[in-house]
Amino acid sequence: MKTIIRNATMVNEGKILIADLLIVNERIEKIAPSIHLETDAAVKEINAEGLYLLPGAIDDQVHFREPGLTHKATIHTESKAAVAGGVTSFMDMPNTIPNTLTQALLEEKYAIASKSSLANYSFFMGINQHNLEEALKTNNETVCGITDDGLYFNNDEGILANYPQFLETLFSRSDSLIALHSEDDAIIKNNTTHYREKYGDHIPFSLHPKIRSEEACVNATKRVLEISKKHNNRLHLFHISTLAEANLLDNTISVHEKRITAEACVHHLWFADQDYERLGAHIKWNPAIKTAEDKDGLLAALLDNRLDIIATDHAPHTIDEKKGSYFKAMSGGPLVQHALPAMLELFHQGKISLEKIVEKMSHHVAEIYRMKERGYIREGYYADLVLVDLHNAWKVSPENILYKCQWSPFENQCFQSKIIQTLVNGHAVYHNGTINEQQLGKRLQFSKYR
């Protein structure tokens, strides 16, 4: 099968240029100012004049909830939302039921995705204080990494950043990429006690960033950084939420050379503490959305490469699970369909360039995880591509939300840019609101050495 995308305004590797692109089967065969083939009835042409062609976004932190929590989401439903949002590959967290703490359970998730995911996929191996030997068996070439993220789902004191002795052992023995959530449990517990004494169960949501505070984040992140530097591990820090944490990170070397990398999430770049009054539990995440200074500081840290990538922490709950008092409303929310449009909105506001969005949502994700033949628009690479109309305004509404949970913190938000078409491995899986489910995504592959 051959496809030519004609006259696309291509954003790739720090440049913007108009070109044609030839796809043969799953891969990019040729990029040139003009491509002409001998008459061939099998060639499909896509007229991309006036549209921007980006490498598909790669989201390294999603919670697609399968198995065990499929009343919230499934790999199938959320992969549909992903491709509608221009996300062509994802990496999923281990806090499903059962938690992904054995190699057998890990492979069961891959088996589910192989039959249901429209996007390319990888799944993190879960790590806690009781499965170290099992986690160390992880195959670096077929698994994105190991993580504790989400494994405190039913235990608020399960974050490994609070167990330095265990981290010393893990970091001294692992050759995998280790991705961690950094918050200090003791500080959070003390803050919770303080505000519970004052408000009972009905703590205002606006106090969430006071409970899961800057101090809680910074203390834990400093602890993890110290241990990681000692062992020279490949450490990746999930969802950095404070400027103070970003200021602890290095921007003097390239992302490929870094042994320690970190990300910002879309909700921490978009919302700030003043939004709790309007949105309440809908923007309750862990780590918490914090101040406007933090929001702006995280974006500045992305621009100067203290922070390396943009992710979503897509964590859908049903709308009923987001209701009730502070302690009843669950933390997390759906984002994977709206992440790229939100970042493109920041482009329209003059806050970030198209080239930098592509770098942080595609190129650098592939670099950090040593991903094979993805993340760039390059000859020989898989054709994971997104066509965007930068001037096609639309509004987020229940009718166009594809998450199984059927809500979004962006509901009623108008975006100026619209995803027109998404190709995964050369196949058009999304086009102007229509999903093509005939082709499924592939298991992501990585370099052995991280």
SSE layout and pairings?
Blueprint: E1 2-12, E2 15-24, E3 27-32, E4 43-47, E5 52-55, E6 57-62, H1 75-84, E7 87-92, H2 103-114, E8 120-123, E9 125-126, H3 132-135, E10 146-147, H4 164-173, E11 178-180, H5 185-199, H6 208-211, H7 214-231, E12 235-237, H8 243-246, E13 260-265, H9 266-270, H10 276-279, H11 292-303, E14 309-311, H12 339-348, H13 354-368, E15 385-389, E16 394-395, E17 414-415, E18 418-424, E19 427-431, E20 434-435
Parallel strand pairs: 1-4, 1-5, 6-7, 7-8, 9-10, 10-11, 11-12, 12-13, 13-14
Antiparallel strand pairs: 1-2, 2-3, 5-15, 15-18, 16-17, 18-19, 19-20
Helix pairs in contact: 4-7
Question: Can you give me a brief rundown of this structure?
Answer:
This protein has 13 helices and 20 strands. With 450 residues, the chain is α/β, with parallel strands linked by helices. The mean pLDDT is 96.
Describe the structure.
The protein has 450 residues and is of the alpha/beta class. The protein folds into two domains: 2-53 and 383-391 and 413-435, Roll (Urease, subunit C, domain 1), CATH 2.30.40; 56-368, TIM Barrel (Alpha-Beta Barrel). Helices cover 27% and strands 21% of the residues. The protein has 13 helices and 20 strands. The protein has helices at 75-84, 103-114, 132-135, 164-173, 185-199, 208-211, 214-231, 243-246, 266-270, 276-279, 292-303, 339-348, 354-368; strands spanning 2-12, 15-24, 27-32, 43-47, 52-55, 57-62, 87-92, 120-123, 125-126, 146-147, 178-180, 235-237, 260-265, 309-311, 385-389, 394-395, 414-415, 418-424, 427-431, 434-435. The strands form four sheets. Strands 1, 2, 3, 4, 5, 15, 18, 19 and 20 form a nine-stranded mixed β-sheet that branches. It has a six-stranded parallel β-sheet with strand order 9-10-11-12-13-14. Strands 6-7-8 form a three-stranded parallel β-sheet. It is globular and about 75 Å long. It starts with a strand and ends in a 15-residue tail after the last strand. 52% of the residues are buried.
